Structures are given as C-alpha cells and as structure tokens.
Amino acid sequence: MKNFHKKFLPSTIIFILFFLSACDSGKEDEYDYDVIIRGGLIYDGSGNEPYINDIGIIGDTISLINRLDSAIAKKDIDANGLAVAPGFINMLSWATTSLIEDGRAMSDIKQGVTLEIMGEGSSMGPMNDSMKADALNKQGNIKYDIEWTTLNEYLEYIVKKGISPNVASYIGATTVRIHEIGYEDRKATDEEIQRMQNLVRQAMQDGALGVGSSLIYTPANFADTNELIALVSAAAEYDGKYISHIRSEGDRLEEAVQELIKISSITGAPAEIYHIKAAGKKNWHKLENILNMIEFARASGLRISANMYPYMAGATGLDATMPPWVQEGGHNAWVKNLKDIDIRKKVSKEMKDHETTWENFFSLTGPKNILLLGFKNPKLQHLTGKTLSEVSILRETDATETAMNLVVEDDSRVNAAFFLMSEDNIRKKIRRSWISFGSDASAIANEGVFLNSNQHPRAYGNFSKVFSRYVKENGDIPLSEAIRRMTSLPAFNTGIRGRGLLKKNYYADIVIFDPNAISDKATYEKPHQYSEGMKHVFINGIQVLEDGDHTGALPGRVVRGPGWTGWPNNSM
What we know:
alpha/beta, nine-stranded mixed beta sheet, six-stranded parallel beta sheet, 19 helices, 35% helix
C-alpha cells in the first residue's frame, strides 16, 4: 500500500490539478462578452434617430450591437433609460502638462471625453536643447522632467506613465519655427523651410494629425502665408490636415478666414478653424459673413470646418494685450523689455490704440473685462479672480502699467479670461452642422496643484454645457446632432479611424449618461466644479467611470493620424 501511494499519488495530484484547471477554463468560456451594455438608447454618432439595443464588448472592441438577452458577460451594465453614445472627442485640448501631473483627466472624463486632441500652434515636440531649457524655465505649478525630444516620444511617454483618455496631436507650426529660427521676426530662408518641412514629415510618419497654427501669438505671427503653405503641403503628402487659431478673430477676421481658405485651396489639405468667433463687440456683426464665406468654400468642394466652446469669454495670457515686437526674442527678452521705461511708454500707447495692426485684446475687451485666472508667483495668487481693472485700482496704476507689471512680477504670460463674445453668436455657431467642440483647456482635477489657480469654466463644463443649455434649455439642436458633432464629425475631420461611431469592430470608447441630468456646474467665480449626469465611461473597452466615480483605470492610448507608418493599427 505504501508503494502504491509512492508510485501513484504524484500523478493523481497532477490529474486533479489539470481537471480543476480545465474547469476554470470552462468557466471563462461561459462568458460570451467582457461587457454587455443592455437596453440603452443608442445614439450611434451618425446623427440618426436613436434606438434601443444592447452592445457587446470583447477586449477593446465593439463586437456586436444586437439583442443579447441570452448572452453572458463578465460585467453587465443596465443602461435602461440612459443615452449610450461614442466617447466625445475634444478637438482643442491643453491637457499636455495636466496629464503628466494627473493622468485621470477628471474634468473631461466626467463629461464623457475619451480622446484629447492637442497641438494648437505649440506641440510637445520636436524640441531641441534650448527649447527644453526654455520649457523647464516656464514651468509653473506642475513640475516635470522633459524625457522626450519628438512629439511621438512625448505621446508615448504620457501613455507609459498612465492616462485615462486617448491622446492625439497636430504638430505645431510655432514649434517647428522655434526649432529652426527661434524667436526672430523675419522671413524663413529656403533652407529653413526645408528643415521645417522635414520635421513635419517625420511627425506625420509618427502619426501626427497634421499641422496646427496659432497666429496671433509671437513668434507664430512672424510666419507669412507662404511659410504656412509649405508646412501644410508637407503634411498633405501624408493626408494630413491644417488647423488654425487664425491670424485675427476681431478687426481683420474676414481676411484671416480668407488666408485659411487659401492655404487649404493651394495645398489640398482640409482646414479647420480653432474656436471660431467674432471677438469684440464692434466685430460681432462679422460672424454671419464668415460663416457664409466658409459655407461657400464648402459648397465649392473645399473641406473647411471649425470648432467652438459655448462661452462668451475666451482665455489666454496677457501677451495677447501687448504688441508682437516687444515679445520678439522669447519670454525672457519680453520681460526684460518690459523693465525699460521708454519701451513701456511705447507699449502702453499701442495697447490703448484701437486701430493696431496686431490682435489687441486690451482694446477689444477693456480692463474691466479681463479676469485674472492664475499666477505662478505665490505673492500674486491673492489677485486670482480679480479683473485687471480691479487690480489697477488696488495698485493705483494705469491698467496698461498694471498688466506689464504683473507679467514681470510673475515671470509668466499670466493667464486671464477675456469677455469678447455674444450669446447670440454662440447660438448661431451651435446651429452650424460643420462645427465641432473643443474646450481649449486642460483636463484637471478639483484637488492638488490644480487649485493653485482658477480655470476658465470650460475646463469642467465645455461639453456638458452644450447638452444642458443648447440642447435641453434652448433647443438649438437635437441631442443626436450634438452627439454627432462631438463624435463622428471630429473623427472624420481629423482622419481618425475606428472611433467616433458605435459600430461593430470600432474601438469601445463609449459613454452612458442621463440626458435629463447632464449639466455643467463650473462658473467663473467657482470654476473647480465637476459636471454631473455622466454615469459610465469606457475607453478601449475598459471602464474608467462607474456610476459617476473614476475607477482609477488608465487605458489611454496614442491615436495616430493617416500618415502613420504603423498602419493598419491606429493605436499603440
């Protein structure tokens, strides 16, 4: 008997373990899907009428949209009475550094954003040594080492670090100009143009979406139209797009739109206008004209589009209140210039001039309509939330002098909100079928370093406000159309594959929300407030938001443009 046990017990144990393993494997096989979303009202992103159905997810992909009554999933989501839609695409994201600090992207995830698109003029690569040093010097509350050189390396860096949303980017026209020319106000040479084009080509092969420009800022506004045509032509070789904060949104608005249309016409690249607007009350009447200009261009066969945010205030730095010439040479040169008495007198005079040749946000708004959002100097942070006019009165200095002093004291561009737009014009834009949405803000949390400065409320409410104000309250567009403009429209305009629709074999970027409850809560006075009404968010098949709470999951990937040499897959 003892010999029997010695001889057969080990093999018996192996058999039992094999049998138990087979049983466990069988249990896995019992599941038809990883996730089933049951009984939701499906808005598939096309703009068509919604319908009730189930969605089965396997891995990172939508496997089936059909009745799945008898199917079994590892996780079941009851979506009865809720809207089910593709994840929202943020066409203008400044989550570049906020995702380094906190990869959860709380303010956007709680609105249903599953893809952040970056690159408004400036991109996180390519960078040379002097650009890296300059970027390190400009860091504010968020500190980080620059462990990348190219744009692609940056995107892979933040994904490896861990982020919830997917990310994509245009390559910045400003960035490649600084890379080759620096901050000089001059025309690029033929050799410099060729080098800039090669930087664009490499970025396109790495998966950039195209070229992004931001032409009211220094040194971007030193580039002429021919330089932009050269860069966009290089991107167009890879089916890249052009997207632009156009050269003027105020006094020369029509001319700026014409420049964008010209660039698209010559290069053959589709073109999009960032945060389309008519800035300054004296220019509000121009909006109808530029909308008609764009629709005429579209009717003639050009692919011209735009994005917007639904707020009457924009947000940028106090550099937008000062002439480009004083900023030539970069940030340090600008601050040094503002310490010179004679230069200050000249700058102050130009800031008060209502007929400048540059985009003058000081004259377009006036100091009463410039709200200071944040400082990196702790000694100035008590001024957050005050207008430039209020600080001017408090300090007993002229408003132009106050603006210059704040830039010098904070050693930054000083972020501010500028009240420039009208509600009537916002509603006109909302009704245009070719306009998508972008927050023009970071993806942040209402905690930690993010509380050291105020934010424009669009960081927390950009997408939710479209639903609560312009769908539900005003009835400007139906829910299905609002969803289309946040999903399939931006996906089409950017050339992104496999996202933007609820469709078999598309990536499972899915949001589930209560259409009656979704709303924005952030205000200019109290901006750090999350939107409400978003129940569940899936990104690449992984649940990131569950019953309104972040799960801590970080499944975000790099989403690549059409020129990526790694196709057929469009994600890393």
